[in-house]
Amino acid sequence: MPDLDSVLQKLDRDARAAADWGQVASYIPQLAGVDPAQFAISVVTADGRLHQAGDTHVPFSVQSITKVFTLAITLGRAGDQLWTRVGREPSGRAFNSIVQLEQENGRPRNPFINAGAIVTTDAVLGRRAPREALAEIIRFVRTAAGSEDIHINETVAASETDFGHRNFALAHFLAAHDNLTNSPEKVLGTYFHHCAIEMTTAQLAMAGRFLVHAPGLPRLVSPRRIRRLNAMMLTCGHYDGSGDFAYRVGIPGKSGVGGGILAIVPHTAAIAVWSPGLNRYGNSHRGTEALAELTTRMDWSIF
Ligand code: DON
């Protein structure tokens, strides 16, 4: 087996030599100004050791990756009841598709597309104030990462609120189908804030340890739930690019429009990669390339 640290150093060098970094997301103005030519990768192995290369000290907006944590929290609070409101199938559509929600009568395909994550956030809220729900989400993420230095970027949350017209359309559509228990404004206020959590790749890889299912790593949810969260990540974690990610990378992963990806090698490692330029599915371009190379070199595909 090749030496992991050497492989990570090579991935960092390859990324920096690349001509194409992809395009940063433009629909959240605060993210549109981020330099796409950045790269970081951190890996926590089953023995608890952290291996990394690149800009691993730079915090970035984790965005949709937080949907994994809110799903874990919701399943803990509401259990299988969530599945009466959200499906478990790949969407085959863009993460912010409106047409699919209409066609399917207000029941989102899965908890990782925006419509599904808005329902999940509504379930995390329950009857609580947004501040209490956000405190639970931040507490979960900090506990998982073993770091108190993880925060919400209020400017990013405000930027998305001001320009979140598609998410407001989705939330109102959900409400029209009685699939929200709170007002669209309250749910989206909470959703935009948890999406605006910032982490470094080191913190994110640490936060992913609970999904690895290895004896020495923190256990936050049951083994059965770990399997199910990983199944959702594999089938739905990259939206309409999930099949391509499974084909090329071969492990469960969840992307965010800030250019981060959390990927899990079951029983072996948690990986966080970040490069802000995106591919046509809205997933990190260089991050995906690096993960494909990493799983090939380390023989980490689950297939
Ligand atoms: O709701 C949104 O559009 C963003 N807060 C999150 C979307 C996202 O990260 C999509 N992932 N690639």
Automatic annotation (TrEMBL):
Domain of life: Bacteria
Residue sites binding substrate per the record: S64, N114, E160, N167, Y191, Y239, V257
Catalytic function, reaction form: L-glutamine + H2O = L-glutamate + NH4(+)
UniProt GO BP: glutamate biosynthetic process; L-glutamine catabolic process
Gene3D superfamilies: DD-peptidase/beta-lactamase superfamily
Keywords: Acetylation, Hydrolase
SUBUNIT field: Homotetramer.
Family note: Belongs to the glutaminase family.
Protein name: Glutaminase
Species, as recorded: Sulfitobacter alexandrii
